[in-house]
Design goal:
Blueprint lengths: L2 H16 L8 E7 L2 E6 L7 H6 L10 H21 L3 E3 L8 E3 L5 E3 L6 E3 L4 E6 L2 E5 L1
Antiparallel strand pairs: 1-2, 3-6, 4-5, 7-8
């Protein structure tokens, strides 16, 4: 296991252990032993937004415009929680259609926090370039 993989696992477990929101994927448990790293999440029966828009389910897409808008709002609410209400604030850094999962009712759940950054209190984002973040205090 690479140091990068180990770090992504640790970040994901730490972030998911800190947050609870209806639009964030829930952590059920994790295991770290030897070279094995496992994370157990809530089951998302409708897979990802990417699957419905561009994947094997796209030909019979069930996402009409009201559902798409609801998914966008849900994902935005999850991100707003991370940015403004989580303590410390969290920057996701990898939001994309494959990281927006859909539950049974097609409610958005933001997932994959392996690249997330915790933002210390009193520190604000100055600029962002290809996942390299600059901060000011």
């Amino acid at each position: 296991m690479t140091a990068k993989t180990e770090m992504e696992f640790a970040v994901e477990v730490e972030v998911l252990g800190r947050v609870r929101h209806k639009n964030l994927l829930g952590l059920r448990g994790f295991y770290a032993g030897g070279d094995e790293r496992l994370i157990v999440y809530d089951f998302m029966p409708n897979q990802s937004l990417l699957t419905h828009l561009h994947g094997h389910l796209s030909s019979n897409c069930l996402l009409d415009w009201p559902k798409r808008i609801n998914i966008a709002i849900g994902a935005a609410e999850g991100l707003a929680y991370l940015h403004h209400e989580a303590n410390p604030h969290i920057i996701h850094r990898d939001i994309k259609a494959s990281n927006v999962l859909l539950d049974l009712e097609f409610q958005a759940k933001v997932a994959d926090f392996g690249f997330a950054k915790l933002r210390p209190e009193g520190v604000y984002l100055l600029s962002s370039h290809e996942k390299e973040l600059a901060y000011i205090t």
